[in-house]
């Protein structure tokens, strides 16, 4: 199994929607969409010639190039304040996530792959004190707030429910741990404990990435046990 990691700096969900169409394997030519041909032309479309044409163009039908799994992990840049570049409204974010999912779920899509497993991961919380340390202008000209990021995390979970796909609430997982550590005094930090999980107030550090890994494995155990590393063919 090949794993394609596309972490793109500064991208929001709209840019992700555009770039993902250059990454996903095509499962059918665009002209096989429903209503693409007038009925009178259907006699000229023969299955044998269509299949050979797919192969000639590097497009394989059915399961031959099926994407096993897609993680949708985006939203931190969408949550930037409305005056900032790459910011999105909640409605735009919602529509873009649904559009990405539809690339695989819409039977008319060139990328139609109904068996592909889709997992939505919410953006993590924001460590505002950490950002101030790394970006001295943040106090006078902030570009994101944790409370706004929470709204986008909630929207990501809503989209997952609407689309019928599982999700990982990374925002709450980290936020709850930080608050528990604050309440019990088990943390030692100058950044309210967020530096236990974030490297700069936005991106995950080693501990944050390990937490996400464990949450993914837990999701596999509950939803897709066949995707656990121990069950995959070597």
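Q: What amino acid sequence fits the structure above?
A:
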């Amino acid at each position: 199994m090949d794993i394609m990691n596309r972490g793109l700096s500064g991208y929001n969900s709209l840019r992700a929607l555009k770039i993902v169409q250059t990454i996903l394997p095509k499962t059918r030519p665009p002209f096989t969409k429903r209503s693409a041909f007038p009925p009178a032309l259907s006699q000229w479309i023969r299955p044998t010639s269509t299949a050979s044409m797919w192969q000639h163009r590097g497009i394989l039908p059915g399961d031959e190039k099926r994407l096993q799994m897609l993680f949708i992990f985006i939203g931190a840049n969408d949550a930037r304040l409305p005056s900032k570049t790459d910011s999105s409204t909640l409605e735009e974010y919602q529509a873009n996530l649904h559009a990405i999912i539809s690339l695989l779920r819409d039977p008319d899509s060139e990328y139609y792959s109904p068996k592909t497993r889709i997992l939505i991961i919410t953006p993590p919380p924001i460590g505002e004190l950490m950002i101030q340390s790394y970006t001295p202008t943040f106090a006078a000209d902030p570009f994101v707030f944790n409370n706004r990021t929470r709204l986008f995390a909630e929207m990501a979970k809503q989209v997952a429910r609407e689309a019928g796909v599982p999700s990982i609430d990374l925002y709450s997982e980290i936020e709850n741990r930080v608050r528990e550590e604050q309440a019990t005094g088990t943390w030692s930090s100058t950044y309210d404990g967020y530096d236990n999980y974030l490297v700069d107030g936005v991106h995950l550090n080693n501990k944050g990435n390990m937490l996400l890994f464990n949450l993914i494995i837990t999701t596999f155990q509950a939803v897709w046990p066949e995707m656990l590393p121990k069950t995959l063919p070597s």
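Q: And what stands out in the fold?
A: The radius of gyration is 21 Å.
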